[in-house]
Amino acid sequence: GENVEQHPSTLSVQEGDSAVIKCTYSDSASNYFPWYKQELGKRPQLIIDIRSNVGEKKDQRIAVTLNKTAKHFSLHITETQPEDSAVYFCAARSAGANNLFFGTGTRLTVIP
Amino acid sequence: NAGVTQTPKFQVLKTGQSMTLQCAQDMNHNSMYWYRQDPGMGLRLIYYSASEGTTDKGEVPNGYNVSRLNKREFSLRLESAAPSQTSVYFCASSVGEGNTEAFFGQGTRLTVV
Questions:
Q1: CA angle in degrees (0–180, nearest 5) for A43-A10-A1
Q2: DSSP codes joined into one string, A10-63
């Protein structure tokens, strides 16, 4: 099955700086790549996703890029704020599959 | 519209005891999932149900059984709990049929002593 690796496991940035989280996947047939944010003690919630026919997608301060050739995708958060502090998970879905494979998560801390 | 609702929120079991985690969604989704979340391991799929009447094993199915009771409800059963099953369990649902945006329940923190 699909194998998703995520780096770094922890990330600390100063408020206002940018944060980048990277993921790689193993199955070249994967075609859907969502990112989830999980605040402490809460449920994971979708923040942005990208499909394999698109190279980049933006939503206000967050963006995701996809490099199908290299099989990696990244989450970019600009102008970070303390409320961005959370654990972020990337995921991938293989074509024809009905479930997501998750990375191991990145704990982002934004220092005021 | 409650989304995905799980019960209970917390549970402590003794080794060997059994229990069922309940999950219900009111979004008319076709697909439902059970994940476990362990520190440093991310979210790992236990079982899923692509549609009413079907269930399939995920990455870590050993020690668990599931029942898709109807379109709304998908339960997870531990027949003989083991300390290795101490985890946070999340139920999720999605529209299915190629749309896998998953909506999660609030989680169940299970401790097996």
A1: 65
A2: EEEEETTS-EEEEEEES-TTEEEEEEEEE-TTS--EEEEEEETT-SEEEETTEE
- What are the pLDDT digits (tens) for B68-105? 989 999 999 999 999 999 999 999 999 876 667 889 99
As given in the structure block, the two tokens for residue B71 are 């379109």
Beta bridge partners, B17, equal none
Interchain CB contact of A34 with B (< 8 Å) = yes
Mind listing the pLDDT tens digit for each residue in A71-110?
A: 999 999 999 999 999 999 999 998 777 788 999 999 999 9
Chain B residue with minimum CA distance to A93: B100
Report the distance separating Cα B48 and Cα B29, nearest Å. 13
Q: In terms of C-beta density within 10 A (0-12 exposed, 13-18 middle, 19 or more buried), how is residue A67 classed? A: exposed
Which residue in chain B is spatially nearest to A8 when comparing CA positions?
B40
B8 preceded by cis ω (within 30°)? yes
Which positions in chain B touch A42 (Cβ < 8 Å)? Answer: 106
